[in-house]
Amino acid sequence: MGDRRYVDGEGRPRPGVAPSASQRDGVEQAQVDALLAEVVERGYVIIPELVERETMTAIKTAVRPLLQHDGRNEFEGRKTRRIYSVIEKTLICNPLVEHPLVLALLDRLLRRNYLLSQLQVIDIQPGEVEQPLHHDDGFYPLARPRAAVSAATIWAIDDFTAENGATLVLPQSHRWDGRTPTEADRAELVPAVMPAGSVVFFVGTLWHGAGANRSAATRMAATAQYCEPWARQQENYSLAISRDRARLCSETIQGMLGYSMLFPFIGFVDGRDPRRLLATEVQPPTD
Ligand SMILES: O=C(O)CCC(=O)C(=O)O
């Protein structure tokens, strides 16, 4: 299988590697090209009002009872509530995870059979301070500059404003070497201001963090992170999501949870494609 990525370690298109035609139904290649050009240039792109506001209102209603605990440290945010193992608890965010336009972008950035690395709902309470800046694939011990190992979406369930904790992104920081943001860099931070139903898409090398919530209301988001099929997922989905629950998901999401392979040798079960575990109850070998 060829390397389908066409963005080099500094975020530029790799010469001679043409984007392959997306197989995502109803997705205009010209739109994908334009969005990807922004991602390549700045490390992120905001796609306004990609889903209906009403969809986000329905998600908010469904997930609110699941938001019970404040964060345990500065990174989670002590005034921020998060839902982990989302798919085990509700399927309502699945259409965001597999939105065709997001998948079309991922198809261009990551190898085939990329994985869901984590899915969270994040609800920032009034009074929360800014989250420490980070880049999402920073925990993989790989030197920068380099191609991203992951990409992420942050969906606005509420309107994102500069006051209520809109995600702060540092344009072009996806091209950096191993350096960390300085005070001077902070002047370049951009809040991803966008109405509910919009999404900010960015590569795992981009420095960013949740903003402080200086408003009187909460700011809710859903975030899905995706990683290369050779990288370990952050959430351990083979333990966190039961097989019965996975059966309720689309084949696309099943594959992203781990019912897929990077052929020929990564992800197999008993020497074969793990998808068959969802089709029938496979008996373990007797000898
Ligand atoms: O909630 C946000 O806006 C960003 C959160 C984030 O980047 C994270 O928790 O890793």
Furnish the topology, listing elements before pairings.
Elements (H helix, E strand, L loop, with lengths): L28 H14 L1 E4 L5 H11 L16 E4 L2 H4 L4 H4 L2 H10 L5 E10 L25 E7 L11 E2 L13 H4 L3 E2 L7 E5 L4 E2 L9 E9 L9 H4 L2 H5 L3 H7 L18 H4 L8
Antiparallel strand pairs: 1-7, 2-3, 3-9, 4-7, 4-9, 5-6, 5-8
The structure holds 2-oxoglutaric acid (AKG).
What labels describe this entry?
287 residues; 10 helices; six-stranded antiparallel beta sheet; 16% strand; alpha+beta; binds 2-oxoglutaric acid
Report what the structure shows:
It is a single chain. By secondary structure, the chain is of the alpha+beta class. Helix content is 23%, strand content 16%. The chain has ten helices and nine strands. The protein has helices at residues 29-42, 53-63, 86-89, 94-97, 100-109, 183-186, 237-240, 243-247, 251-257, 276-279; strands at residues 44-47, 80-83, 115-124, 150-156, 168-169, 190-191, 199-203, 208-209, 219-227. Strands 1-7-4-9-3-2 form a six-stranded antiparallel beta sheet. Strands 6-5-8 form a three-stranded antiparallel beta sheet, with no helix packed on it. The longest helix has 14 residues, at 29-42. It is globular, with a radius of gyration of 19 Å. The two termini are 34 Å apart. Residues 1-22 have low confidence and may be disordered. 2-oxoglutaric acid binds next to strand 8.
